[in-house]
UniProtKB/TrEMBL annotation:
Residues 159-293 form the GGDEF domain. Keywords: Membrane, Transmembrane, Transmembrane helix. This is GGDEF domain-containing protein. CDD domains: GGDEF. InterPro entries: Biofilm_reg_signaling, GGDEF_dom, Nucleotide_cyclase, Rev_trsase/Diguanyl_cyclase. It comes from Nguyenibacter vanlangensis. SMART domains: GGDEF. The keyword Signal does not apply. The chain crosses the membrane at residues 15-33, 54-74, 94-112. It holds the Pfam family GGDEF.
Length: 309
């Protein structure tokens, strides 16, 4: 396969501009010793400390220090004017000047850096809280409230699609026979498979509690396509699961309802899907029912139909 071009390193143009400004001010202030330009180095460095990371600040101080030392050694700048004949005195006066630059920028940069870290922690905490408030902790699928919000948004946009209400057949036997910890491990595996199946169709998955899940698959479906979709999902859910050190196949019952541009609302659609799910269970489970249609058998779909990825 062709190799992707290497990503170009990101350059902070704002910080680079301020760094060059500090260097230019150092040169100009020491070249024109009678001007007070050297005083403007302080606010320039302070601005750099506010808007850039510590590496940029130390780089700017390094360049300013090199330039100031070199120009002072050649008898240029305000420090050389104050001690025109004494090289040692120039060094004694230059050191406090350079040290004063550090005293200006380091506290600012430390405070700004701490504020950035605090802001990052707050944003991370906010994201974690939002995720916890909208997702099921065990299966990492949406919780019921978030799922119904997504479904309501789809209906409000007058989009088409299909909503599935899914119940794991005989889940109680896993809990009773293998223990609740194994049951939780299976629910994780089941949720992961649902996310994989529906996520590839740009859909959403939610857990309504216990062994009940729901899914939304957006799009316009012909009668053959909707049957194929439900049959393919039902067939994929029967494939063996690996959990708690064992491999086991489990079936699921599915109730489906079509999402049309004129759908009444999320509650009405979920009610229809629940009725369809009840009909699937009443007819022997391990299958699917579309609301308003008789329960369907899980026949293998013909090759002409598009298979789920």
């Amino acid at each position: 396969s062709p190799r992707r071009p290497a990503a170009r390193p990101h350059v902070d143009t704002g910080a680079l501009t301020l760094l060059l400004l500090c260097a230019a001010l150092a040169v100009l202030s020491f070249a024109w010793a009678r001007s007070p330009l050297f005083l403007f180095i302080y606010p320039a460095l302070a601005m750099l400390a506010f808007h850039a990371r510590a590496a940029w600040v130390f780089t700017a101080i390094f360049f300013v220090s090199i330039l100031a030392s070199a120009l002072t050694a050649h008898g240029l700048g305000p420090i050389a004017r104050l001690s025109p004949d004494g090289h040692l005195m120039r060094e004694d006066m230059l050191q406090p000047y350079l040290f004063s630059l550090l005293l200006v920028v380091l506290p600012i940069n430390n405070a700004v850096g701490e504020k950035r870290r605090y802001t990052s922690r707050l944003l991370l905490l906010k994201a974690n809280l939002e995720y916890a408030a909208t997702h099921d902790a065990l299966t990492a699928t949406m919780n019921r409230q978030m799922f119904e919000t997504v479904l309501g948004t789809l209906i409000a946009r007058h989009d088409s699609g299909i909503v599935l209400f899914i119940d794991i057949d005989d889940f109680k036997s896993i809990n009773d026979g293998l223990g609740h910890q194994a049951g939780d491990e299976f629910l994780k595996a089941f949720g992961a498979r649902m996310r994989e199946l529906v996520g590839g169709l740009h859909g959403s998955v939610g857990r309504f509690g216990g062994d009940e899940f729901a899914a939304i698959v957006p799009g316009a479906f012909s009668p053959a396509e909707r049957d194929h979709l439900c049959a393919s999902i039902s067939d994929a859910l029967r494939a063996p699961y690996r959990f708690a050190g064992i491999t086991r196949s489990v079936t699921a019952s599915i109730g489906a309802a079509m999402i049309d541009p004129g759908s009444a609302g999320a509650d009405d659609l979920m009610r229809k899907a629940d009725i369809a799910l009840y009909m699937t269970k009443a007819s022997g489970r391990n299958g699917y029912t579309l609301f308003g249609m008789p329960p369907a058998a899980n026949a293998v779909p013909p090759p002409s139909m598009i298979m789920l990825q």
